[in-house]
Give the backbone structure.
Amino acid sequence: MIIEFDNFTIAQIQEKDAWSICDLMLANEDRFKAYFPITLAQNTNPTLAKLFAQKKVKQFQNNEEYLFILKENKTHKAIGLIYIKALDWNHKKGELAYCLDYNFKGQNLMSKAVKYLNVYAFAELGLASLQIIVYKKNKASIKVATNNNFTWQKTLPKEYTPPNSAPLDMELYEKHK
């Protein structure tokens, strides 16, 4: 599946994306270390990134988790990742998680990417609801949720613990088909 908009492409992960993902993660290490520590740790060098890409391709094929790469068309470099994860096929729900290269923040790109992946999740995957879980101070991520008509549901007490930090209350946003 490939979606093109403006000068960007959203595509499902492929093994050949490993180097580009590694570059994205390392260039944004400070930005991603609190909320994407596992993805970051799995992409700190090309060898680990190759293993990561292979694992994510298999998870995609097995309908366990879907990882999409947001790429700039001009350079073909990864500038963002969007997960459809925490899938519950019995209740037809999943969670969106996303990260974006600091060079592209403030351009509404993630809002547009999430818009297209909402359609994919509902129409192609048959999900009935999607969630976004975000820290209340992450205004950019909240804007992605609200721009895509996700509705705030509740605060999740001590839902997430960043590395070497105290647990954080997180905000749950949902959207239904």
In short: The CA atoms of residues 26 and 56 lie 18 Å apart. The longest helix spans residues 46-61.
